[in-house]
Amino acid sequence: MRIEHLTNQEPLICELAQLHFNEWGRFRPGETIEARTARLRACCGIGSIPTVVVGILGSELCGSAMLVAQDMDAHPELTPWLAGVYVKPQYRRHGFASALIARIAEEARALGAPQLYLYTDRSELLYARLGWSVLERRLYKGIGVSVMSKELSV
């Protein structure tokens, strides 16, 4: 799998927006696929926050990860955030998520971020295995999540 910035793979934006919408739409009740697509398109940066990277195998989209300034309105003081880590089911358990997460950590480190944050409702064990620590467990928008952080060596 090769990892590229989404801005260099613009034809994949609509497919990725649909995958993200299906996976996390419950966190944004009332959001449309068009709004999700526009939001994703607005995150396409390189060497900045926000940025989106995608994993590609051959010509197929495998997954994504994002670096965003804010991802949880309950913690506006925390920044930046790892978000949008998604791997298509047929590519899971092959290290693709770990590679995408590592790439976003590299991007954040290059921008001078000392720490990175995330929240997850399903993948706490994956992140813990990769060196992330739980800051808190809470209800967020009616869903139980773990808020986690990772120190970055700058």
Describe this entry's structure for a reader.
The structure is a single chain. The chain is α+β, with helices and mostly antiparallel strands and 154 residues long. The protein has helices at residues 13-24, 33-42, 96-110, 124-129; strands spanning 2-5, 51-57, 60-68, 81-87, 115-120, 133-140, 143-151. The protein contains 4 helices and 7 strands; from the N terminus they run E-H-H-E-E-E-H-E-H-E-E. The strands form 2 sheets. The chain has a 4-stranded antiparallel beta sheet with strand order 1-2-3-4, with helices on both faces. Helix 1 crosses helix 2 (33-42). The chain is globular.
Key descriptive features of the protein:
4 helices, 32% strand, 7 strands, alpha+beta, globular, 3-stranded antiparallel β-sheet, 154 residues
The succession of helices and strands, N to C, reads EHHEEEHEHEE
Alpha-carbon distance between the termini? 26 Å
How many extended strands?
7
Q: Look at the structure and give the mean pLDDT.
A: 94
How many structural domains does the protein architecture include?
1
Strand content: 25-35%
Shape assignment: globular
CATH architecture: 3-Layer(aba) Sandwich
| Low-pLDDT regions | none
Walk across the major sheet and give the strand order: 1-2-3-4
CATH topology: Aminopeptidase
- The top-level CATH class is Alpha Beta
Helix fraction by DSSP (H/I, runs of at least 4): 25-40%
Mind telling me the CATH superfamily name?
Gcn5-related N-acetyltransferase (GNAT)
